[in-house]
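Objective 1b: paired records.
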Amino acid sequence: MAATVLSFEKPVVELLERVRELEGALGNGEAPTPEIAALKCETVRVARELFATLSPMQKVQLSRHANRPYTLDYIARLFTDWAELKGDRRFADDASIVAGLARFRGRSVAVIGHQKGRGTKDNVKRNFGMPHPEGYRKATRVLELAERFRLPVLTFIDTPGAYPGIGAEERGQSEAIGAAIAAMARARIPIVASVIGEGGSGGALALGVANKVFVLEFGCYAVISPEGCATILWKDAARAEEAALQLKLTSEDLARLGVVDAVVDEPPGGAHQDYDAAAVLLGAAIAKALEELDRLSPEALVAHRYERFRAIGAHA
């Protein structure tokens, strides 16, 4: 995978590369030197200071980072016995959504998530993470399978939005998204959703009607992309930075407004700098959420989900 470095993250990336270089020079079983420990502390300090001042649009750039871990990267690190299920039983398989059964810490679960590609060929296959209707119908099929066998559902959100092409509209894009939202709303099982990158519009919400919704520290979640918003409001996509500020799409804004239940920290420099550490942090949040939801009856899970979404946007 080719390294992509955004201009504002260069100081952190340089420190991280130095740490890896020093660790790579250690012999087998050799303990880290004081120099490495000091450099790691410096990396954490610089990352916190630098990333604390990022603009909303810079955080959007991080959420879209080409090296950021995608759903299959988390599946490889958080789950065992992964068995992917394909097809919507109507038209085709959509590779921009992956779904299947797996074990999470020894427990059987269903997993559904958006999947972007690595490189041009894979991105074309995955349609840049923009699902067609058959992708959402596949997600609904796996969700209903999970409910039949009383399995918790874990979703991973990372899409600029559902594909808006003519073929997708002809095959019922809005109906497929609506059906996925309705199926999640009425499911009598625990559902935990995690925004691991960018969450755009109904294409993201179709996997986001959950009892617990998390967003990674540099993830974003909004009704439209900043570029799309700027184009509609001001007929000028160059004003995307202004739109990003107004959309309140960063993890801090989402938590403050109650759109998400919690923000999951990322490793220094972002999830794309350490896939394993990012998976550990997200896995811990998911495990805790499942433990809490296990105390609720099937009827209470549906009611909990209903009340959670009814409360968004409410003001006294």
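Objective 1b, second protein:
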Amino acid sequence: MARSISVPMPRWSFAVLAIAGIYNIVWGGLMVLFPNAVFQLTGAVLPNYPELWQCIGMIVGVYGLGYIIAATDPGRHWPIVLVGLLGKIFGPMGFALALVQQRFPLLFGLNIVTNDLIWWLPFFLILKSVYTAWRADFTQNSFPSLTAALEEPVPAIKTSLEALSRTGPVLILFLRHSGCTFCMESLAQLQLRQTELAVAGLRVAVVMMSEPETMEALWQRYGLQDSIPISDPERRFYKAFGLTRANFQQVFGWPVWVRGFQAWTQGGHGIGPLDGDGFQLGGAFLLEAGQVVLSQAQTSAADPIDWERFLTASNKSKQGKAGAA
């Protein structure tokens, strides 16, 4: 089972999410039981289909359950808070449009105040706290240097990457976490390129933030027995290789969504559970004789691995050694 990734959060955040959850469940339940009540109290025209309003009440109530789950660990369940905040932003926008079109009386906006507006600031501050905490460099879990990271024994091969690289070039892939769409895409590409990589003389090591059990299941799923799994939940290897954390645009920007849609429609790579720091970026490094000779650091979560670049470099090195011999 994957390790729970969490961050320190202000104590008030737990209470806010718990209150938000209880409020949503109560409000949603009342709308399901008394769908016409809010219209009668505010002087709005009764809906022709009260079942639709009951459906909205059901959705709001389900959000309440989500908030209560998030209240148990806001730092881990921040995506629930993000989705909730987006709903609380788009809802008032829709009401403003309806108000301009005179479809609702102003008094109906009391729902917007209690359902949406009063939660903007606390939800934003919760997300800001998560981002600030993850942005911090947890140096207590870092290797003191890249050299130390390369000399760390890897359980899967019982030796270090530095020692392995002295027997031949090693391609080190950093693929973030097991729920990442693009990481699944990269693993599928690795599966297809295993023969090509072997011909080029490349051993492949894959670093992920997942626990060993999760990585073992992925290796079985994709048939990657020839690749070396390295579990790094604390992100020590990521930091040692200088891989940074993303900003919001690098993870949720429009180009990332476009690439994600392509990965889903063309390769069937969807979105899985968050299994690590969702803002950690990945990359790829070619290691020869204990030295990094070629690198590619992601500038967004959607950046693909430049396989051809690493294959070309490895083939040139192989040819050079053959010529020297």
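Residues 66 and 170 are 44 Å apart (CA to CA). Confidence is low (pLDDT under 50) at residues 1-5.
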